[in-house]
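Bumping with the actual sequence this time:
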Amino acid sequence: TGQISVGVCKDCDIAKYSTTLGAISSQSCVACNAGKYGSVVGTAESSCIACPSGQSQNQLGQQQCVSCIAGYFQSATTQTSCKACSKGRYSNTAGLASNCPLCPIGFFSTEDGLTSCQACGKGTYQNEEEKVGCKDCVKGKYNDETGLASCKDCLQGRFLDQTAQITANSCNGCAKGKYGDAVGLIAATDCKPCSK
């Protein structure tokens, strides 16, 4: 009666499907969309599986999704690309499925897609998260370490009239006949005369 045995029918390739009844060539097989993958021969578009968060796929008819590389993330499913961590954030983990962690206090990042944050240098500090730079130590303070959230005060009897200083030696002693009874003095005039 003109019917052909079911055994003669050929499957579409993995990650492709066909909804055509009585198809006569592989051209009726449709590849899974970008953002999806297929692990079996399918008979419907629902045979294609959405890429999970933390992964993407930008090509048609693929058998797997690709994990986001470090410095990137993807919080949604069915995506064709990953997003770069924004400035002030970083990720050293592949396959990150949520927004990138914030650079902590004492650290910063100036570019998108970084895998680590940079420590604030000597003479600077950062007391907030998710920042793209550091603040200079103000007068009366210095910083001789990196990655700190605050600067150190010049000790009593000393003053500092410059910013962004990197050593305690930058703090000047009060002149002979004067004293400083507070920390963090910012000028020689902050030193008080000794009483006679």
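The tokens above came from a reply further down the thread. The two ends are 127 Å apart (CA to CA).
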